[in-house]
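Notebook entry, cofactor series.
This is the third protein in the set we're modelling with a bound small molecule. For this one the ligand is S-adenosylmethionine. I'm keeping the input format identical across the series so the outputs can be compared line by line later. Sequence and SMILES below, as received.
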Amino acid sequence: MLSFADFDTRGYRTVDVRTGYGQWVATYEDTVEDAMDIALLEELAEPSWGNVRRAADLGCGTGRTAAWLRRNGVSSIDGVDLTPEMLAVARSRKLHDHLREADVTDTGLEDGAYDLVIASLIDEHLPDLRPLYAEAHRIAEPGALFVIVAFHPHFIMTSGMPTHFTSASGEHIAITTHVHLISDHVMAGLGAGWTLAEMREGIIDDRWIALKPKWERFRNHPISAALVWRKQG
Ligand SMILES: C[S@@+](CC[C@H](N)C(=O)[O-])C[C@H]1O[C@@H](n2cnc3c(N)ncnc32)[C@H](O)[C@@H]1O
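Returned structure with ligand:
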């Protein structure tokens, strides 16, 4: 497996997921760009969001993903996250039916209960993707879809940038970041029993440059990826 340390050009102090998101929570929604994930969700040919019966939102954070799901017709969503402060914001928004503090690799959610499982912008925090794909498969019903939106390995390697935030005191702080090749996703998904149904990659385009003019040097590089998996049913 690749180590982010081999690509790190920032050298920011690094904290674990709970510590990092526990602090980032105050500014999280102001700093995460929809171009990263929402733009890809909007491009997907499936799922047919309005027909989803019950969704599991893994790494639900503040409810940003759930807000988009609800806007697109998904009315029943259960969320799981490791960080109490992120969950507290999600709880206050009342977008989820149930919220649970747990690891995405061991959610405690019911077997075969969901026709949609989604995990957006969490993959780089996992040392190994296989337990996530296996857990998503366990909680998915036959025929269900698993949508995963990932931080593109090419961008992490090229930019040398970890997932990070700026603290109240102005320090740039990294949250433990791992690099997963697209083939790591493919092999983890296939190994867990999923079939790949669709994949999209988001590139640094005019929209991104308008948000981050300094990223002109990354123009046309991929920054995120969405994979849609189907459970045999
Ligand atoms: C970048 S946020 C994404 C939140 C939301 N899905 C969105 O797109 O805005 C990553 C979230 O994943 C959570 N997370 C990271 N690793 C996790 C794990 N192993 N188990 C559960 N949650 C995790 C963090 O606490 C954080 O809330």
